[in-house]
Design a protein that fits this description.
Strand content: 15-25%
Number of helices: 14
CATH superfamily of the largest domain: Thiamin diphosphate (ThDP)-binding fold, Pyr/PP domains
Largest sheet: 7 strands, mixed
Helix content: 25-40%
Number of strands: 16
Shape: globular
Order of helices and strands: EHEHEHEHHEHEHEEHHHEEHEEHEHEEHE
């Protein structure tokens, strides 16, 4: 079979199976699992791999997502490389433990298959992961199954270098249950890129006993937060370096953000994450003055990368974030983060809600957004409500 590189094989994989394949390639040693649609086939596939001896890992069925994340925290303290996956209410239920994992500085990587909460819904939405953006976790959003697989591998290296956990997010059904061609790297290549996990500063050491989770007085708590901040502000630059190293070894290039057709000729920039990006790529080919800014690293928000991507954008240009989330606020999370990153910049920015709860965002909807943004935009616009 002809492959992209001699160290890869080609497979047709659903996004959830590509995610499980990435965890296997990273030699994950502990997998606590609890099923929830549309994530379930990730942990089912991992269970199958472990039972067949394709993975040397301990797989444990837990009684809830809260318990799954608590077990993940315990295994990470014991020095294991840990992976789990969840979605929607499962991520909300684990909220308390997300804070604990981040502030214990444990380099866990998880996948979240984005879906909303109430009213009851299992379709694509990013409100679940974006609601957790202040828990201290790094967040990446994948556009394709290939990108999700590659991002999980990169995320372990990033997490273990900085001792900060990473959440890799893929859209429900559009990615999780849709089959795509995926280049799967050979194990030797991944091993060369991602070395075995070494004990971190928050690992149990039987020769040097220490306590975990005790009461921390203000003077020490302040220092702990400072050291977390000091490492978190390295994420943007470190993620770019890891992606560049990955490109040299694996032949696929990624960046914190991707700028398409953004330059002096651009009058409108759509800002997207995940699978909506692919649709927008096709649409803007018909509009030479419309650009596209894809956000891959969402948290910490890549301010420097965004500013660099828009460096040549005319001052009278319009920026239009496209939101597949609703967080109970006036604007969506993408608009809020873009405003913060571009504070003081002259651009006009209008927010567009489209695709919440899995409502399809076809090319026609992207064209409506372009038309509204150019002609009669409101500060906040809901598209295709009827």
């Amino acid at each position: 079979m002809k492959t992209e590189a001699p160290t890869h094989s080609q497979s047709i994989l659903k996004g959830n199976f590509a995610t499980a394949e990435a965890a296997r390639l990273c030699r994950v040693g502990f997998i606590p699992a609890y099923p929830i649609t549309p994530q379930t086939t990730i942990v089912e596939r991992l269970s199958d791999m472990v039972s067949k001896g394709e993975m040397d890992a301990t797989y444990v069925n837990m009684d809830s997502e809260h318990s799954a994340f608590a077990a993940a925290m315990g295994a990470a303290l014991a020095g294991e490389r840990v992976f789990t996956a969840t979605a929607g209410q499962g991520l909300f239920y684990a909220h308390e433990v997300l804070h604990a994992i981040a502030h214990f500085r444990l380099p866990i990587v998880i996948a979240n298959v984005g879906r909303p909460s109430i009213p009851w819904n299992i379709w694509s939405d990013q409100s679940d992961s974006l609601a957790q953006r202040d828990t201290g976790w790094i967040q990446f959003y994948g556009e394709s199954s290939q990108e999700v697989l590659d991002t999980v591998i990169q995320s372990y290296l990033l997490a273990e270098q900085l001792n900060i956990p990473v959440m890799v997010v893929l859209d429900a059904f559009y990615q999780s249950h849709t089959s795509e061609n995926v280049w799967v790297p050979d194990q030797d290549l991944v091993d060369e890129f991602l070395p075995p996990k070494k004990p971190g500063p928050m690992s149990i050491d039987m020769e040097n006993p220490k306590a975990f989770g005790g009461l921390v007085p203000p003077e020490h708590y302040n220092k702990l937060n400072y050291t977390f901040w000091r490492d978190a502000i390295q994420v943007e630059e470190r993620a770019e370096q890891i992606a560049a190293d990955y490109a040299r070894m694996f032949g696929r290039e990624y960046h914190n953000v991707e700028a398409i057709n953004i330059g002096p000729q651009t009058r409108l920039v759509l800002v997207t994450v995940s699978s909506i990006t692919t649709t927008a790529r096709g649409v803007i080919r018909k509009y030479p003055d419309v650009g596209l800014l894809k956000i891959r690293l969402f948290k910490p928000f890549p301010k420097a990368s965004v500013q660099e991507a828009l460096r040549e954008l005319p001052k009278d240009a319009i920026i239009a974030p496209v939101e597949r989330n609703f967080l109970g606020d006036r604007e969506g999370a993408l608009f809020q983060e873009m405003q913060r990153a571009l504070y003081g910049a002259p651009y006009r920015m209008y927010d567009f809600y489209a695709g919440a709860g899995g409502k399809d965002v076809p090319p026609e909807t992207i064209e409506k957004i372009i038309h509204i943004a150019r002609n009669n935009p409101q500060d906040v616009n809901w598209v295709d409500i009827a």
